[in-house]
Amino acid sequence: MYFPIYRPRRLRADANIRRMVRETSLSVDDFIAPLFVCPGEGVRREISSMPGNYQLSIDELVREAAELESLGVPAIILFGIPESKDELGSGAYDEHGIIQEAIRALKAEVKDLLVITDVCLCEYTSHGHCGVVEEGRVNNDKTLELLAQEAVSHAAAGADMVAPSDMMDGRVGFIRNALDVAGFDQVTLMAYAVKYASAFYGPFREAAESPPQFGDRKSYQMDPANAREALREAALDIEEGADIIMVKPALPYLDIIHSLRSEFDYPLAAYNVSGEFAMIKAAAAKGWIDGEQAMLESLLSMKRAGADLILTYFAKEAARIL
Ligand code: PBG
């Protein structure tokens, strides 16, 4: 009779032994919380497809940030909903734009939180595209100028880190250079290096009021079918001076996170996007899954795949549990 000499279940027998041989762990240190800032005062408007997440006016943003800080979350990333939008997204690089004012308020009142800004034009343009539109196409090089102005204005307001999410060619180098020239060589750059044209951004576009008014983002964001191209994109951003590289979305792209982890010795972030969050919340609300366990399991899977950092709308909830 065959009898196993090695019995894997021995290492699963009780909580202590499981704890001792556990290979991956989640920590509040891993989290970056995305927050949406809008005009007004005392505004705290829940995003219907993202329960527990809000459009916040600056006073409420400061309160939310202070709470995250007290829970030990090290960083937030800001998305802006401007007062008005135009063709060239001028609210994005306005010295008194919504994000620039938000950064100043945060820096004055929440001292121990790292402030990251999303650098993109789609929330600020009337057409909802991530750049300058000419004859129905996004003009790459004209967009670079505006993104650089945006990044420099965030740095001037006090941002610790900028995160370009537009997917224009050459933007990391262009922005890094503009920051250095303006004297912001200490501002960190996290590149959305590998960002796919994904269906999982739906709830975010509601939250940020940024859906494209015509067409889609397939001429600048990556084709979900491509994995080798992800390595080229990451290599380019590293060459151009990115400090941290990101893969987005996370769950449907764990293979990409894993391959970037084995290929590059740079800090790696995963963006657990709005659609991933909404799916778990919706299924949990119907009683179809245990929302808390599904949240922790999916966050853990991103760490196991090789992510060091996770941008997630679960940051506050997970921080409370951890
Ligand atoms: C801006 C931007 C988007 C997200 C982050 N930055 C939207 C998009 O590219 O359409 C999506 C984040 C999410 O879904 O949680 N370009």
Domain module tally: 1
Care to count the β-strands?
A: 12
Shape: globular
Strand order within the widest sheet? 1-4-5-8-9-10-11-12
Any low-confidence stretches, pLDDT <50, length ≥5?
none
Could you tell me the strand content as a percent range? 15-25%
The average pLDDT value, as a whole number, equals 97
Structure ligands: ligand PBG
Structural class: alpha/beta
- C-alpha termini separation: 46 Å
Query: What is the CATH domain class?
Result: Alpha Beta
CATH level-4 homologous superfamily: Aldolase class I
Strand-and-helix sequence, N→C?
Answer: HEEEHEHEEEHEHEHHEHEHHEH
Return Rg in Å: 20 Å
CATH topology: TIM Barrel
How many H/I helical runs?
11
State the major sheet. Answer: 8 strands, parallel, barrel
Task: Work out the helicity level.
Answer: 25-40%
Word description of this protein:
The chain has 322 residues and is of the alpha/beta class. The protein has a single domain, classed as Aldolase class I (TIM Barrel), CATH 3.20.20.70. 38% of the residues lie in helices and 18% in strands. The chain contains eleven helices and twelve strands. It has helices at residues 15-21, 58-70, 98-109, 140-157, 171-181, 202-207, 228-239, 254-263, 274-285, 291-305, 315-321, and strands at residues 31-37, 44-46, 54-56, 75-80, 114-119, 132-134, 137-139, 161-164, 188-195, 244-248, 268-272, 309-312. Strands 1-4-5-8-9-10-11-12 form an eight-stranded parallel beta barrel, surrounded by nine helices. Strand 4 (75-80), helix 3 (98-109) and strand 5 form a beta-alpha-beta unit. The protein is globular. Bound molecules: ligand PBG. Residues 118, 120, 122, 130, 165, 201, 204-205, 217, 273-274 line the site of ligand PBG.
